[in-house]
Amino acid sequence: MDNMVKDLLYSIIQPHLEQVSILLNEYKYDKEFVKEDVRFIAVVIYLAGIDKLSSFTMIALWIGGRIKFKELKKSRNKNWSKIYCDRGLLHKVNKLKNLGLIQRDNITWLTILRNYYIHGLSIEMGYRIYPKYDKSTKGTIEIIPSGPSLNHSADFQVDINLETLNHQTESLIENISNYIRKTAFEKNLKKIKEELRKLPVNPEPYYSKIKGYFDSPGHSNKIDDVIEDLNNETMQKIFKKIGLI
Fold first, then answer.
1. What is the DSSP string of the chain?
2. pTM (2 decimals)?
C-alpha cells in the first residue's frame, strides 16, 4: 500500500513537475526580465500540483481516521459519493505542517505569495496617513480622507530551480506516504471496496424511478437527482458502518 500511495502522489504532481521542467530548463532566455517571468509562472504551476497533492492527503487522512470530515470542506453540503477537499491551499499546507509532513517553510511562503497574487484585490477608502514637510511644521503628518481606490497585487519574483523543487517534492511525498501508512487508510479503503462489492445491481426503488424517467423524456433531468440520492444513501451507510461518520 505504501508504494501504491507513493505512485498515486507522484501521478498527481508529475504533470506539474514536467511543465515546470520545460519552463525552467528548456525555455530560451533572451532577457533577464523574461527569466523572472518564467520563474513566476513555474511557481504558480508547481503550487497547483501541491494543492492537489494536499487535497489527496487530507482525504486519505479522513479515510485513515486522523481528521474529521469538517476539515475537508467549508460547505455543510455533503455528497458522500464524491469526497473532495475544498479548503484553501494555505489551510491545507498549515495542516500538513502541523502534522510534521511539511518541514520546510519555503512551501508556506511561496503559498502566501501565490495566494496574494491570485486573490489580492480590494477597493480601499477612508482616512490615510500622509507625511507633511514644510518650514512651519518641520516634518509631521496629516490624516486625509481618500478613495475609493483600487488595489491589486502584481506578480512576485522568486529564485527557484528545478533541483530544489524535485528534492522538496520527493521529501514531501516520502513524509506523506510514511504517515498515511501508519493510519487506518489501508484497512478502511479495503472495507469500502468490500462493502461496494456486496451492493445489489438495480437497487429498488431507485431503479424503477430511473427507468421511468428514461421512458419520459420530459423528466430526464431528474435522473441525476435520483442517482445522487442513491449514492448519498448508500455511501453514508457504508461510512457509518466502518466508523468514518
1. -HHHHHHHHHHHHHHHHHHHHIIIIIPPPSSHHHHHHHHHHHHHHHHHHHHHHHHHHHHHHHHTTSS-GGGT-SSS---TTS------HHHHHHHHHHTTS---HHHHHHHHHHHHHHH-EEEEEEEEEEEE--TTTSSEEEEEEEEEEEEE---------HHHHHHHHHHHHHHHHHHHHTTTHHHHHHHHHHHHHTPPSS-TTHHHHHHHHHT-GGGGGGHHHHHHHHHHHHHHHHHHHTT--
2. 0.82
